[in-house]
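Field guide to reading this record: the first block holds the primary sequence, the second block holds the structure written as discrete tokens, and the final block holds curator observations. Each block starts with its own label. This record concerns ABC transporter permease, catalogued under organism Streptomyces daghestanicus.

BLOCK 1 — SEQUENCE
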Amino acid sequence: MPSPRSPMAAPRSFQWTRRVFLTLLTAFVLLPVYVMVSSSLKPLADVTSGFHWLPSGLTLRPYIDIWSTVPLARYFVNSLVVAGAATVCSVAIAVFAAYAVSRYDFRGKRVFTVTVLSTQMFPGILFLLPLFLLYVNIGNTTGIALFGSRGGLILTYLTFSLPFSIWMLIGYFDSVPRDLDEAALVDGCGPLRALFRVVVPAAVPGIVAVAVYAFMTAWGEVLFASVMTNDTTRTLAVGLQGYSTLNDVYWNQIMAASLVVSVPVVAGFLLLQRYLVAGLTAGAVK
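BLOCK 2 — STRUCTURE
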């Protein structure tokens, strides 16, 4: 005898509709991934001749050739250094700035927070020419090579990731009870010691969410990386264009390289997923 349904249970029609919708959504999401994987395992002639759902012959040659067709290893190192440095600097500066805004009252506090948030309204391409001229003039005046260097690209990415990081951490620090700070101060901790020993451990999910956002922003950025870099400092997002030449387009190698360069981001996201979800939803429920 079937057990009686709970009065709060969803109707069967809704359950079947949900299953069908989720199945179609999953297929829609996984279909491009299957095309990439299958194309990366085919010879170039099979990819260019026409698409077949089931490949006639499988080969790992594209995954070997991607390292010699273009200097992918150098692009990988450049992207790792730039994205990693931009992430560390963004998180470090955002922690201090957000803690100051969250815990202290000072003149211009509201103006500062509004200014930080308003920077997200402007499109990135609006800053391309000013930053280009600024870096070139700094290089001509002081000899500090910002244009075409990793350092210049890191500073560029900070202009985009830092405002959002500060704004996000302000909201997260506001959700951390001030009683923790006060208890640490009573126990003899200074403001910095209270920050690193009490507030930061309690705000790990928010800090991880900020770090993931900053890293992903720098890792996949194309516009500024295509203008602010040269042959030695080029990143992966721009270097993938090297598989397209005047004579041919190595589609199978493009697919293979795209899968390889997405591994760090996907792996990091899966490892930090629970922190990321907790950080993004912080302060949603009061």
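BLOCK 3 — OBSERVATIONS
The chain has a mean pLDDT of 84.
The chain has 14 helices and no strands.
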